[in-house]
Amino acid sequence: MTETLDLVYLAGPPAAGKSALMAAITGRCDKVPVAARVPHAKLVSKATGDGLGIELGRPRARFPGTDTLSMSIGPAAITWLGTRPAALILGEGDRLAYPGFLAAAKTAGYTVTLVYVTAPDSVLDYRCEERGSAQNETWRKGRATKAARLASWAQEAGLRVTGADTAANRAGTLAAMLREEIPVLETLWS
Question: Model's pTM, two decimal places?
Fold first, then answer.
């Protein structure tokens, strides 16, 4: 029997709620940091102790994810994907949210799902102000455009793309909806 491979990546503009959504998706897992060329955390079931997959980046209280990785991580991450390091890989953030990374995952045999996390500009602006973000508006709009283009590219490339509006739903509600849409996420809650 062939093992199925899945990569689920959350991308969106700054303050869209990617980190909160990932925390809700992985809420029943302990995260065990793995120091490697591509830093990640092993996702371990709190209930059973079973390894369930990995999450890219270094765990930290605020804003974990791929943005904790080196700016030059892309080539190493693409090579690493070819080793098929886990049956389930989760990622969120801007650092690896680009076509080359998602295409490399597909080439390595992963079923790739891009979750395009959005919220209206007024909500994003408010959240940035509330968290004391030093990111200027031009840079934030550039990141939003990058994420929107990635979602369009992914759709055209035949990857699965699903949306998550964090202004309309809380992270826990979205996580439950995503578990229905992306069945492999249910394994994190079993």
Answer: 0.93
